Every structure is written in structure tokens, then in C-alpha cells.
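call fold(seq) -> C-alpha cells
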Amino acid sequence: MAENTTVSSARRKLSWLSGIAVFFVGLMVWGVASGQTGASYSPELALDLQGGTQIILTPTVADGDQASAEQLNQAVTIIRQRIDGSGVGEAQVTIQGAQNIVVSIPGTPDANTLQLIRASALLEFRPVISQAVSTPLAEGALVADLEALSDEPATNPASPSDAAWATERILAEFEQIDCLTAFRQPGQIDDPSKALVTCDESYIFKYILGPVEVQGASISDASAGTVTTQTGASTNTWAVNLEFNADGTEAFGQVTSRLFGQASPTDQFAITLDGLVITAPSTNAVITNGKAQITGSFTQESATVLSDQLKYGALPIGFEVQSQENISATLGSESLRSGLIAGLIGLIVVVIYMAFQYRGLATVVLGSLIIAALLVYLAIAFLSWRQGYRLSLAGVAGLIVAIGITSDSFIVYFERIRDELRDGRSLEAAVEAGWGRALRTILISGAVSFTAAVVLYLLTSSSVRGFAFTLGLITLIDLLIVTMFTHPLVQLLARNKFFASGHRFSGFDLSAKAASYKGRGEFRVSAQLGAGKAEKASKEAVKRQTIAERKALAGMGDDNE
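ret:
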């Protein structure tokens, strides 16, 4: 019964692992066959291996001043967060000279990613004073001279929502604005203390907005998710969740207290990015806890785009796109080929060592490494498709290093089995007892490697993150392989006639020629050994004594005299 249970458990684990591999293979085949965006049988490569797009941004600061080093550093951090949040991996954002910011993105970025980079003005919250559908001016219509009109409020506005902010110039500009024409200058910076006439991102609606009341820097977090009911049940309606810092919580509470209950459109607050309205929701409640939710006709994609804009939209300065061009790979296919060759050489060396040291058990090692390589390849290809991951040369280095981590797990397991065989256990009992002892060591080793990978990923730059990511990925897959493939396969081989017989090429032949050292000068010798072999094995085991134990054994001999 116990034997059948062990065999069934081993086969069940192997079946589960096969099912996982088949599932991901089927998923990739479906994605490629159905033409899913980004789906491919091969992983996407990073900037150093493939090349990509380079965008040079020039800061635009009011009054002709130059951007400070602190502003540029903050801008680099926010732009990098924007790109990472859009799902593009292995991008590089650096400061060129004293003023320009260079953004290098692997491959060809999509429109959303480019928009996140270019939309570099301050994110701002402004109250809506007026809203209308934008229509082209009639041919021959008179265009007012905006510079000649007054820009001072007729009366002192009581609040940022007061219609008094709509000065003569503002009203004339609102009347004649055509959202489908170029109504803003590139890199234009708006005065936060005055009203603004602008359009939404779709260029359908035009707005008169009051002065800025909340800065985008006051947003501490933004995320896309489905709306939940009062009972906690999730719906299929997508929304964007906002969280403000302390200053933003206070300011936003004052805004919603004033806007709540007002007639449309003065109950709305507009969120502008690069001077365009990205959303203008109405106020449905007074929000004083700093947590708001924007609802509307969102899809998962549009909610995610808006949350990224809100989360990463607050830049300390504005930027103009000075140039955009394609760049070649810095390392290229030759470096990738060299890295793969190095990995193959390392793999061959590991297999040769295993064959020399463990003979027949090398087939288990080879099979485990092949399955691990397949799962790693599928995982990287899947992440490239669904998460925008790109494999860099640093990532390839992580894969090569991981070969040693995986091999270490095999060595620990096999040596534990040999220890149990030296203790005189049968092969099947040694396999189970050795697994129990080896698993603890393997888990501890894996936990250390994974922790190191996480720390590297969180605290280092993007180039090192590629190494850390593949190192962590391989560590997790190694634990899966050892548990779901290596151990079950060894369980089945222990019942195979060739391995169970203790053949000298099986790797399990230690029980036929070794005695185990128990400590204090005592040895346990297998009862299956003949007198000659037992004596030879005991002499070999004597070498394992420590100096203190040899002295203790000598003292016992003197006492006996």
C-alpha cells in the first residue's frame, strides 16, 4: 500500500508539472495564432540587445530660468516611474549635460508610453466654471484681439469656482477656441493663479477652468480597479482610486465641500496634464479622508492609463521634445550569442561533473535542467507578452548564474541520499529520508537567493534589476523543479531494477562498499557486506575521525589494559 501511494504521488506531481508546461505552451500558441498584441514565441530583447527609440527632452521653465539639478533629478525619477508603470522594461532615463533628459526605450514604444513621456507639464486640479462642445469657427467669423481685452476680473472672485474669473479675454478665447486646431504652444506653462481655457484630450469639449486648487504632487497613489458594493462584492465597473497626502487631503476636502451640491458644470473639478483636461468628474460627496474614486465609462485599459497619468503625472518642470530617433543596439546580437554560449558551456560542464560524480543520476540532472530551461523560457516569453518584460544582457547573466543554484539543489539532495545509504538504509528509504533532510537545506538556500534578488531589484538601477529579476525567477522555478520533478523522478528510479540493484554505474552503489561513521570511534557497517569488504570500508571510515575522538579512543584502549 505504501509503495503504491509513493508511486501515485510521484506520478501525480509529474503530471501537475507537465500540465503547467502544457498550459503555458497552449497559452502562447493561442496568443500568437489569434494575433494578440505583443504575443510571440521568443522573448522581447532590451535596449542593449535590440536597440530602440531615443527621446531628448528639453526643460521649459518660466521666466527663462534654468532647471535646477534637484528639479531634473526629480523629473528623471518621475519619468522612469511613468515608463515602468506603462509596462515597458529595461528603459534608460538619464540627464545629458546640465539640462536635457534622454529617454531610451527598447523597441518601438506605443502611443500611450510616448504620451506619458511627452505629457511632462504639472498635473493640476482646477474647478470647472464653464463647459461646452467645441465647434469650428464659421468661415469669415470675426476673431477678437485677445491681447486688447481685459484679463482682470470685474469683481473680486469669492472662490476659484466663481464666474468672475471669466474675464473679457477668457470669454472671448472660450468662444473662439477650436480644439481641433493648435490652440496651445509646445511646452506652454500656465499661470496657476489665473483661469484657463483649454480642451480635453479627445479634443471634443472646451472648458473654462478656475485657478489651481490642488497640485498633482499631492497625490500619493493612484490605481485602477473595479467598483465594490457596500457589501464588499466586486462589480464589473472599472474606476480609478486616488489617495492624497496630508496637504492634498486638506485641500481636496475643501474643494469637494464647496463643489458638492452645485449645479453642473460647476460641481466638476478638472484634472489637467500638459494643459489638457484628462478627466473632469462631478463631485458626488464631500471627501475629507483623502481617498477619492473616479467613476465613468471606463474600460480596464482606459482606467489603467488614467491611473498612470495621475500617479506619475506630477513633474516639477515642463519639457519640450527636442528630438526623437531610432537607436541601434549598444551590445547587439553578438553579445547575446556570447552570453548564450557561455551559458551552454556552463551547462555542459555541470552535466559532465554530474556524470562523473553521480553516474546514472546524471540523467535526472539533465532532465531537470531541460525542464527548468523550458519553464524559464516560457515564463520570460509570457512576461514579455503580458507585462512588457525585456531580456537584457544582465538578465542573461542572471540565467547563467542560476545554473549553479539549480545544480546545488541536486548535489544537496543526492548527497543526503548517499548519507542515508551509508547508514545502511534501503534505497527507497534513503530516498525518502534524504529528501526530508535535503528539502530544508534547499528551501533555506532558495530563500537566501530570492531575498538577495529582491533586495537587488528594489535598491539598484534598471541594468542590475535585469540580473536580479532573472535570478529571482530561476530560484522560484528551481524550487518547483526539485519538488515536482527531481524528487518524484528519483522516487520512481529507486524502484527501477538497474538503480535499485546498486549497480556501480547507477550512482546508488555506496551501500555496497561503505560504512558510516557514528561518532566517538564507532561505525555502522551494513549487514549485507562480506567480512573483507566490511573491514575495508571500516578502514576508510576511520579517516573521518577527529583528533579529539582518536585521542578518546586511544584512552579507552589504555583503560582496557
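DSSP finds 15 helices and 15 strands in the chain.
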